[in-house]
User: What shape does this take?
Amino acid sequence: MYISGVNEDIIIAGCKKNDRHSQELLYRHFARKMYAICVSYAGDRSLAKDMLQDAFIKVFKNIKNFKKDGSLEGWIRRIVTNTAIDHLRRNKKTDNYVEMAVASSKYHVTNLATSKVSFDEIMEQVDRLPEGARIVFNLYALDGYTHKEIAEKLNITEGTSKSQFNRARQLLINYIGNLNL
Assistant: This one.
């Protein structure tokens, strides 16, 4: 893969040597995507910028440990996700889980699939979710963690993870259904 016209391996080697130009190329290539991940966890652009900065400090500090088992982007994404969760945990924001209410909705999952809602509109609705539900939704639906892994990361039970995901899904169905009215 190439980053800004330069072979990825050359940029990685430069980052391992603390070469500022290589670090800048890597940052510029991935920052926008990784910032979007931070915003989805933080729900706040200022906090997301702090998360992103902390994450890239970790990326540059730990790039010597990157093995080409997977993609560089996937490796960076995992660091960004873990940094976002750590940030929220430090600020005790992961205690903010909503109670799972038995919600009845006139909208069903099939309405999500058939609605003509853009990805950006869906992500705006994800940002509206209560913080606990949003974090679990992001980890499960966007980042591919299992409920067991989420429970371990957030120091919650597996059942809480599942209920938060279901709550997020129900709220999104309602939010998106209301967009189509």
Notes: The mean pLDDT is 82. The first helix runs from residue 8 to 16. The two ends are 44 Å apart (CA to CA). The domain at 95-179 is CATH 1.10.10.10 (Arc Repressor Mutant, subunit A).
